[in-house]
């Protein structure tokens, strides 16, 4: 039946071409080079590669649930491809493969090119943090005989979306004695999960007048942590504190120096009856992270030294010394430049190298939602399955026209389908790492893929777009001057 349908569909399309009136009209505003679902243009072998790549991506996404675990997974992948920790003062030679880690929460992978650092580098930047909840410093309390955990939020979320789903608690606790305790509860089968309970429709009358963003206030995002008291003399909060001590060695005072995240516990899954999409938590922006990682790991010796910069805290403003707003990346480039120039190094050499560098700020953005298409100006919107996207937000956020033209050139040469995206004016917004890179006088362009349900516990992406973003990384690395 499926074969008959495909034959019929092909005959109808052919008839339309013969008659001079295409049956399948291109969506409004579809740019040249990306006028239909890219799946239609893949060969059978390429379709198999798309599906295999998506399976590998789901494996990564399942393990990389936080900034800490993303760095850990990136190191595993890098080591498997011959990358090793960057020695201090090392002078790069063509083909060297190194990584450098910043405080376990950010890192750079380095693939040394044939040209010296002084002639500029290629940079791909993506952020490894995703919206989540975090425990406060003194989180455990009791309410109506339940033990609950006080939380705060990281990144923009719709609070009601975080109720009634299984949440895992992951992260680290650092003690005064120097020990670091790694915590992961709720990801493995048989482990307990945390749940933020919503009101049932039988008793939620008082909430019905709240606006969508206020259905649940941020201070109400407190999951239930226990119900059984330790004994008749102590409450359930004391019982939970005792469990933290007995099972994990965590004293209440240790939670002051802890980074414990609450993240969705669901595993990534194929989505759609055709299995064309990936559904999972953290695709903003670990989708770009995986594409960048695989792109550099699978590359041969490039012309220019290539860096993959994985930064923390983009969702909260690129702050802290592990965020893209710190000097970490530029300091590292300076040390690589110094390693090649030695006593001849002067400060202006760094500025000149940055001026000659080129970068991609990789991040996803909202794709057209078929339920609410009017949220977009459809002539300038990105659609899932239509390839990667070049972001043209305006208001000074865009790359200059010559850099966009250079980007178009290597994308078209590599036959990578692309589209453009611009939000409705004054009706939407979004930030990337691009502005942090441009502060250093680096040419940078924002590139990503469209995703549905960004910042929710379970987002949707197209497998074909993920694969094309990976291919974009390879094309960028090998592109000429």
Provide keyphrases for this structure.
481 residues, alpha/beta, Aminopeptidase, Aminopeptidase i, Domain 2, nine-stranded mixed beta sheet, six-stranded antiparallel beta sheet, 10 helices, globular, disordered N terminus
What does this structure look like?
The chain has 481 residues and is of the alpha/beta class. The protein folds into 2 domains: 38-130 and 281-478, 3-Layer(aba) Sandwich (Aminopeptidase), CATH 3.40.630; 132-264, Aminopeptidase i, Domain 2. The chain has 10 helices and 20 strands. The chain has a 9-stranded mixed sheet with strand order 1-2-3-13-4-14-18-16-17. A 6-stranded antiparallel sheet has the order 8-7-10-5-6-9, covered by helices on one side. It has a 5-stranded mixed sheet with strand order 11-12-20-19-15. The longest helix has 20 residues, at 44-63. The chain is globular and about 75 Å long. The relative contact order is 0.17.
């Amino acid at each position: 039946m499926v074969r008959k349908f495909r034959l019929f569909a092909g005959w109808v399309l052919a008839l339309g071409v013969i008659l001079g009136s295409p049956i399948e009209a291109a969506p409004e505003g579809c740019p040249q080079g990306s006028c239909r679902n890219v799946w239609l243009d893949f060969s059978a072998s390429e379709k198999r590669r798309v599906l295999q790549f998506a399976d590998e991506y789901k494996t990564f996404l399942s393990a990389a649930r936080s900034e800490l675990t993303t760095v850990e997974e990136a190191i595993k992948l890098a080591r498997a491809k011959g990358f090793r920790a960057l020695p201090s003062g090392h002078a790069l030679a063509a083909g060297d493969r190194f990584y450098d880690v910043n405080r376990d929460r950010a890192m750079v992978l380095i693939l040394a090119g044939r040209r010296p650092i002084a002639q500029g580098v290629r940079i791909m930047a993506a952020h490894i943090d995703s919206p989540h909840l975090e425990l406060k410093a003194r989180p455990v309390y009791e309410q109506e005989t339940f033990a609950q955990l006080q939380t705060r939020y990281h990144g923009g979320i719709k609070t009601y979306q975080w109720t009634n789903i299984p949440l895992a608690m992951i992260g680290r606790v650092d003690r005064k004695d120097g020990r670091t305790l790694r915590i992961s509860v709720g990801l493995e089968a048989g482990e307990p999960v945390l749940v933020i309970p919503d009101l049932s429709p039988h008793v939620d009358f008082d909430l019905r007048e709240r606006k969508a963003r206020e259905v649940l206030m941020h201070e109400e995002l407190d999951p239930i942590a226990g119900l059984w008291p330790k004994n008749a003399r102590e409450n359930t909060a004391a019982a939970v504190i005792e469990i933290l001590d007995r099972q994990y060695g965590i004293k209440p005072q240790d939670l002051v120096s802890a980074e414990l995240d609450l993240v969705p516990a669901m595993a990534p899954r194929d989505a759609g009856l055709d299995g064309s999409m990936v559904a999972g938590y953290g695709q903003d922006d670990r989708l770009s992270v995986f594409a960048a990682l695989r792109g550099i790991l699978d590359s041969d010796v490039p012309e220019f030294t290539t860096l993959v910069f994985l930064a923390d805290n983009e969702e909260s403003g690129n702050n802290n010394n592990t965020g893209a707003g710190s000097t970490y990346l530029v300091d590292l480039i300076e040390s690589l430049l110094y390693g090649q120039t030695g006593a001849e190094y002067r400060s202006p050499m760094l500025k000149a190298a940055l001026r000659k560098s080129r970068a991609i700020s990789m991040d996803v953005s909202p794709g057209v939602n078929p339920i609410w298409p009017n949220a977009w100006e459809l002539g300038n919107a990105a659609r899932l399955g239509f390839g990667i996207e070049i972001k043209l937000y305006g208001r000074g956020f865009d790359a200059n026209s010559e850099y966009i033209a250079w980007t178009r050139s290597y994308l078209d040469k590599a036959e990578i389908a692309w589209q453009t995206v611009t939000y409705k004016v004054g009706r939407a917004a979004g930030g990337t790492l691009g502005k942090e890179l441009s502060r250093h006088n680096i040419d940078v362009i924002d590139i990503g893929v469209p995703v549905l349900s960004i910042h929710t516990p379970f987002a949707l992406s197209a497998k074909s777009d993920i694969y094309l973003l990976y291919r974009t990384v390879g094309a960028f690395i090998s592109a000429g001057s």
